[in-house]
Write a structure and sequence with these properties.
single chain, about 80 residues, mainly alpha, 3 helices, binds zinc ion
């Protein structure tokens, strides 16, 4: 899930690293969001390889970096007994 709105002023983002309306530098937020997406992808890769414990660790990290409904669902599912 990519950032579609500026977290400060809610302007629609064009894909640039800064907001055209308020000028906020979103580089760090976008970097963290990308790292979270990569951890979620790694969780799926680990799960496909049968490494459920590693998958859960990656899903936890993704959730800590960026709380999304998908990350919450995957983490909850992996942590279920
Ligand atoms: Zn803005």
């Amino acid at each position: 899930m990519t950032m579609t709105r500026c977290p400060l002023c809610r302007a629609r983002l064009s894909g640039a690293n800064s907001c055209a309306r308020c000028g906020a530098d979103l580089t760090l937020a976008l970097t963290i969001q990308g790292a979270a997406a990569r951890h979620l992808q790694q969780a799926m890769t680990c799960l496909a390889a049968g490494k459920r414990h590693s998958a859960a660790a990656h899903a936890d990290q993704a959730l800590r970096l960026h709380r999304t409904p998908l990350a919450e669902t995957i983490t909850h599912w992996l942590r279920a007994p």
